[in-house]
Amino acid sequence: MSLVVDASVAVQWVLDEDGSARANALRAEPGLIAPSLVAAEIGSAIWKAVRRELVSRADALTAAQAALLPFEALVANEELHTRALELAIDLNHSIYDCLYLALAERERCALVSADAKLLAAAKKMKTVEARKL
Predict the structure, then answer these.
(1) Angle 74-76-77 from CA coordinates, rounded to 5°
(2) What per-residue confidence (pLDDT) applies to 25?
(3) Which of 3, 34, 110, 120 might form a disulfide with 38, Cβ 3.0–4.6 angstroms?
(4) For residue 78, how many other CB atoms are within 10 A of its CB?
(5) Are 102 and 77 in contact (CB under 8 A)?
């Protein structure tokens, strides 16, 4: 069975943050998936860490690649965008987060996140199980 993992979790695989131990335990789970947007979101979070001088440029580039390795598949945003937009409108929530919700709904699997706002949006849906990291 698949498990949708958002960027808030994937970033913790490569940056030492609160929750990194719990995030790393998920890496062993089979079938980790995400919308392809996750690569950009991971990159943005790592870029912010470089700006705060928490990680070097070289380590950031390595981390960006390593963060994608546990994923079995990245699903094209285009496959999810119509449903994600419907959810964004209905839930009054960002379409970026709704890509994760649309994927979890489509695959009939759980979503794991450390993002409280995304988890709150998922709670409003009857079709998605959301798990807090």
Answers:
(1) 115
(2) 94
(3) 34
(4) 9
(5) no
Quote the Cα angle for 15-111-59, to 5°.
15
pTM of this structure: 0.95
Predicted pLDDT of residue 18: 85
Residue 74 confidence (pLDDT) above 90: yes
Checking if the pLDDT of 41 tops 90, the result is yes
Rounded to the nearest 5 degrees, what angle is found at the Cα of 9, between the Cα atoms of 62 and 53? 45
Domain boundaries, the chain: 3-132
Say how far apart CA 3 and CA 104 lie, in whole Å.
8
Instruction: Report yes or no: 88 and 59 within 8 Å, Cβ to Cβ.
Output: no
Secondary structure (H, E, C), the chain: CCEEECHHHHHHHHCCCCCHHHHHHHCCCCCEEEECHHHHHHHHHHHHHHHCCCCCHHHHHHHHHHCCCCCCEEECHHHHHHHHHHHHHHHCCCHHHHHHHHHHHHHCCEEEECCHHHHHHHHCCCCCCEEEC
* pLDDT of 113: 97
> In the CATH hierarchy, which top-level class contains the domain 3-132?
alpha beta
